[in-house]
Specification:
Helix content: 25-40%
Radius of gyration: 16 Å
Largest sheet: 7 strands, mixed
Number of helices: 7
Order of helices and strands: HEEHEHEHEHHEEEEH
Distance between the termini: 32 Å
Shape: globular
Structural class: alpha/beta
Strand content: 15-25%
Number of strands: 9
Strand order of the largest sheet: 1-4-3-2-5-6-9
Length: 186
């Protein structure tokens, strides 16, 4: 498997499946750094699967728009603690992920949904959202503690023309006030 990881790191592969043989036809991806993977991640994935009726995989990109790229040792370290099927990619943005997996839906928390529509990551947000529509991409969004308050999809200013792209996970189905950053700090 080391050779396959190295091929991904070198850009010879776009994706690498770990823990499964093939991608489900009705794909739901939960992108993250999973450092470490915790019950908040797995709970959000299960809730998004329940709401979407799709089969979920974690997606770990070795490149990230906000963090340094992961090297082989770091990828292997993270995978040692993940007991879910994972697809490794080199796609740092949701736009690149959607292009790599047309028709896939994505699970995410409130804070990630805020970044998704932030012009810092894609300067023409309406054009990007139109591209998501064309790719039949959807986003299943869980609420999260943010700034000391529980925030959910209804708190995000999504233009009316694009609201159908976003599916809320009700707090009654899933809420986990846990973060990888806090866990690493302990």
């Amino acid at each position: 498997m080391n050779q396959r990881y190295q091929q991904l790191l070198n850009g010879e592969l776009d994706q690498l499946l770990v823990g499964c043989e093939s991608l489900p036809e009705q794909l739901l991806l939960y992108p993250g750094s999973f450092n470490p993977l915790h019950i908040g991640h797995t709970g959000l994935l299960r809730a998004a699967e329940q709401l979407s009726g799709r089969s979920g995989l974690l997606e770990l990109s070795i490149q990230n728009v906000d963090k340094p790229a992961l090297d082989l040792d770091e990828v292997e370290r993270r995978l040692e603690h993940i007991f879910e099927p994972v697809v490794l990619t080199r796609a740092p943005t949701f736009f690149e992920k959607a292009q790599l997996f047309p028709g896939a839906w994505f699970a995410m928390g409130y804070d990630t949904a805020i970044r998704l529509i932030d012009p810092k990551y894609h300067p023409d947000v309406p054009a990007m959202l139109r591209a998501f529509q064309a790719l039949e991409t959807r986003f299943v969004v869980a609420g999260r503690l943010h700034g000391g308050m529980f925030q959910s999809l209804e708190h995000i200013p999504i233009p009316d023309a694009f609201k159908e792209l976003f599916i809320p996970i009700p707090e009654s189905i899933f809420r986990a006030d846990i973060s990888s950053t806090e866990l690493r700090g302990k």
